[in-house]
Specification:
CATH architecture of the largest domain in chain A: 3-Layer(aba) Sandwich
Distance between the termini of chain A: 29 Å
Number of helices of chain A: 11
Oligomer: homodimer
Bound molecules: calcium ion
Largest interface: A-B, 38 and 38 residues
Chain lengths: ~300, ~300
Amino acid sequence: QSSNSDQPLPDSVLPSWNEGKTRTAILEFVDAVTDSNDVNYVKPEDRIAVFDNDGTLWSEQPMYFQGLFAFDRIRSLAAQHPEWKTKQPYKAVLENDMKTLAEAGIMGIGQIVGASHAGMTSAEFKQIVLNWIDTARHPIKKVKYTELTYKPMKELILYLQQNGFKTFIVSGGGVDFMRPWAERAYNIPSENIVGTYANLKFEMVNDTPALRRESDGLFVDDGPGKPVGIQRFIGKQPIAAFGNSDGDLQMLQYSTIGKGIRFGLIVHHTDAEREWAYDRASHIGKLDKALDEAAKRNWTIVDMKKDWNTIY
Amino acid sequence: QSSNSDQPLPDSVLPSWNEGKTRTAILEFVDAVTDSNDVNYVKPEDRIAVFDNDGTLWSEQPMYFQGLFAFDRIRSLAAQHPEWKTKQPYKAVLENDMKTLAEAGIMGIGQIVGASHAGMTSAEFKQIVLNWIDTARHPIKKVKYTELTYKPMKELILYLQQNGFKTFIVSGGGVDFMRPWAERAYNIPSENIVGTYANLKFEMVNDTPALRRESDGLFVDDGPGKPVGIQRFIGKQPIAAFGNSDGDLQMLQYSTIGKGIRFGLIVHHTDAEREWAYDRASHIGKLDKALDEAAKRNWTIVDMKKDWNTIY
Ligand SMILES: [Ca+2]
Ligand SMILES: [Ca+2]
């Protein structure tokens, strides 16, 4: 395998990525770690690649999609909760009052919704997520959420897998929110998905085992929690990490500082026309410190507008 | 593929297992779930098999091997801790006073040693475990601990892998104690090992990332914790579970009660000559409730003396 850029590359390799230094950097890294004659060769069992989800594998505007799932859940359950008409943040959700919701913050809303899903079993929650992902539509794009996954990134996952990499999602999103659909959407199985979770409790009811969701014992797989999640679930230092925001800073540091060549990549949202354009000032997916660090660490920056010929 | 027992089986399939109903039960289960014409066919991505470690994949007498590791650690560190000569349970370890140690219990000793390993990084702890597993000898068998892994069970793991199963260890042992050597010993990679763990903290020291071990936030992957660990790390209900003690009861229930055929197996330690013989009255690997439940649930019992022609 050679990454000599004078040679034409087969159309089947990363076709949604435009020719240029971003695509070349990916190909050269993969060539080096898979070439057993290269000083930077890495055995397949150590070819660990970790991907953030929101803003890295699918869109995240105008709100993390798990937040939009939560809002849909509040609307679905409103009839059973007449008190929500006057109680925040439920009132804001029911009135579509985005200003108040922005002030409440995604974590505040997430925790309330997390609590409202506590007490059900893992199997029940999975079914709710599956029903939502199969039916809900994005408020602006008007398509199913899984149609807002990035084609170039799915090609990249496949390309790494074809080159012997083990690919994982390491996301601040809830692990039980992602697993029901991510296997189909990204070709990443449930056991390779690391995310935020709370306690579960095993129980036997009518001779049937179940795991009941609790609201305590929250592990937040974001920021400095991402390397912790990686060690806990994977147990190895990755050699490649893909993110888009300051929440990925520590995961990128943990994955790219070490012996041998490593690969860090940041998806920079620069395409206001086909997707969204935002970075340092955004409430969702803020990219500030990690953008500064990228230059220092030699991480690759995807300029979405320039580097991707197709978004979805 | 057929499990017709009139046909001779190739020598390469489970050679350390004697012909008989235990071996036949394994073969018939695997045949059913891998035969796409069988009503019980299971797609490869759902062929999840979980294995306990202590007493299921390697021996656990006269003490869980992680306990013996802990004792060796106390001896190694004794010169730096003169106060241990008079302080229990350290005194008992240094004097090889097994009666006092038995009274202190493995959990008590484990927690003390866990605390003594808190504050070091994951990388430092891994190196200590690797040094130990490469050099330490079992006090009775006088061989390396990895030579006390069960050959029939390693054949079984391989056989399941060859039939498209995803194989996991789900053990009460420390995940960071198992991972350094289990990949080589069992052909199960670090990301497929679920175990007990405490908190980790990410830090950057001298521009180098590290995960520091803490002593709080303990998750005990034993008993009712095993199904919790399975859901958290794997996210799917297994279709086969392999254990040897009451600590596996809930894992066996969770894995075997469900639609389609499932497979539960208990390794019964019946061979005092080649290994050890113990069950209902043992302090280590007590097998009592799970043995009663096995009959009710139709779990397969391995009679080690009768079913295995080779132990190690
Ligand atoms: Ca993100
Ligand atoms: Ca055991």
